[in-house]
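Hi support team,

I'm filing this because I wasn't sure whether my run with dTDP-4-keto-6-deoxyglucose finished correctly. The job status page said complete, but I'd like someone to confirm that the output block is well-formed before I use it downstream. Pasting the exact inputs I used:
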Amino acid sequence: MEIELVQLQTHGDDRGALISLEDQRNVPFEIKRVYYLFSTKEGIRRGLHAHRNLRQMVIAVRGQCRFLLDDGKERVELFLDNPAQGLLVESMTWREMYDFSPDCVLMVLANEHYNESDYIRDYKEFLEIANGGSHAN
Ligand code: T46
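And here is everything the job wrote out:
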């Protein structure tokens, strides 16, 4: 599976750092929604779903967590701890997030508004769709 990690340019000076996110520049889609996950409790696993159409960029703006990506054929685990790296999560990718540090803030940019019907929350259903509608057990 191809993992796309976008290196975001940090504008720094002796006062501190700044990163700017602009659609069609360093974010490869129109940004329609921004949300962030924080105060995730110890031992919690989040995500556990795929999206039918949604494209997203995920940035650990503070702290760290692990991020599992699964395209139905291969699983890849990443460690997110760098506010200057944006992980692109394309549609039809199962994702799970875990091992959150207590201070972790995960910011997500999305190319669509929130829509529950875009979620696939059943892993078996995800595998069937991802692998071309085959009905594997
Ligand atoms: C994803 C990963 C990385 C809203 O009302 N609006 C929103 O835009 C979102 C994203 C969620 N919600 C509500 C729905 C639930 O009642 O917030 C609650 C928590 O959402 P969810 O359980 O889906 O959160 P996570 O952390 O499992 O997953 C989220 C995103 O939903 C998902 O798209 O890719 O972060």
